[in-house]
Amino acid sequence: MYEKLFTDDKLHEECGVVGVFSENSEITSQLVYYGLFALQHRGQESAGIAINIGGGIEYRKNMGLVTEVFTDDIIKKLKGGIAIGHVRYSTTGDSLAENAQPLVVKCKGTTLALAHNGNLVNAIALKELLEDSGVIFQSSTDTEVVANLLSRNYHGDMIKSVKNVSEIIKGAFAFVIMTEKELIGVRDPFGLRPLCIGKRSDGYVMASESCAVSAMGAEFVRDVEPGEIVVINEKGIESIKSSKYAKRRSCIFEFVYFARPDSTIDGINVYQARFNAGRLLAKEAPVEADLVFSVPDSGTPAAIGYAQELGIPYGLGLIKNRYAKRTFIEPKQELREQGVKIKLSVLKEIVKGKRVVMVDDSIVRGTTSRRIVQMIKEAGATEVHVRVASPPITHSCFFGIDTPFRRYLIGAIKTVEEIREFIKADSLHYLSLKGLIKSTGDDNFCIACLNGDYPMEVPNFD
């Protein structure tokens, strides 16, 4: 599980969840498919859909992309009024078929399906307690811990069970839960993981990002509030607010890297926040240059903002191969470095003889940044200035973002000048924490990966 954390050079997607409650059972699975396709950037290891068919729940899930797991024939067979879906990148549990979601379990005369985005910090302790009481686990995910807790707390009222379990589990989570009669959405008390609601003429949808709501032909209604439980059934939609107050602490890296730029999360447009970050970065760290370009794709809005603020031309210096596999699949360093060339290529005619500014969203281990800078210089650039649209990452995340142990984070073990020397850039500047927060127009964030201020007690693995 941890080897890929040590060898990769980017933070990685969490997971994406989708839920649909529709009066039109003919199109429900298609809507979930569209929603998952829109959230594919949040996880590419596995995909799954569970749907209510004839009062029972059937499901299809497997390793691979949404388009690989689901064919037209499969989607046409999945007909029902309620459905949930999931795309996964493993942060807890290995990348195996048995860990694919949704999880479907039978409990005391009923059946439920569960899809989860996030990570529980007390999952190990809860799993040990369940195993001591005789529970046998089929997977290594914390989602199965939640499913077992829901089953044990169920006494004819699933909503009450969800409320009880929400108070037991600790960490970051956004769940969509489907029973034989209802669709339930749950968000953790801090709102660390996103979840929103959309309305269609034939029902309601829920999704990790608003871009998926649009993809399902729904109108965005609102974000699920931190600690809120949303229940959708034949009677309509019901909101159950948490009785325990906690200040919202949305994940700042949704806006730096994870979310699609056309999404709006907790009232903040992702593209605008990234564009603002680039402009603020230009004010904090200007440089004389001939060309600004990004490390595609999440760095692009910041690069545009940086270029506009300084009046430097923006162009394409790097081209991304969207079909290349991640570099961490190669076990040897020389092959991982070759993987960078497979994923990115330099437009030599554009950068040759120029002083260039390369804008990236973040630097995790520094190895990829070093290789890209080398590629740009080999292509003939006279100067390569690196600008990063977020502060140095100095601490691990325990809330559903795949980060290396702290000792592998270059921002935790080197100064900015040492990082500059390591990646061999002519200059290197990060956006300040104050600037990053200002770029969003909000200050209700979890920034623990940047300053170690965790909103709750976390494990010590470093």
Keywords:
single chain; 462 residues; alpha+beta; Glutamine Phosphoribosylpyrophosphate, subunit 1, domain 1; Rossmann fold; 2 domains; 18 helices; 32% helix; disordered N terminus
How would you sum up this structure, described in words?
The structure is a single chain. This protein is 32% helix and 26% strand. The chain folds into 2 domains: 3-248, 4-Layer Sandwich (Glutamine Phosphoribosylpyrophosphate, subunit 1, domain 1), CATH 3.60.20.10; 265-451, 3-Layer(aba) Sandwich (Rossmann fold). Residues 1-8 and 325-331 have low confidence and may be disordered. By secondary structure, the protein is an alpha+beta fold. The chain is globular, with a radius of gyration of 22 Å.
- The count of DSSP E runs of length 2 or more, i.e. the number of strands, is 23
CATH class of the largest domain: Alpha Beta
Portion in helices:
25-40%
CATH superfamily of the largest domain: Aminohydrolase, N-terminal nucleophile (Ntn) domain
Number of domains: 2
Overall mean pLDDT score? Answer: 90
Q: How are strands sequenced across the largest beta sheet?
A: 3-2-4-1-10-9-11
Discrete helix count: 18
Which descriptor suits the 3D outline? globular
Biggest sheet character = 7 strands, antiparallel
* Cα gyration radius (Å): 22 Å
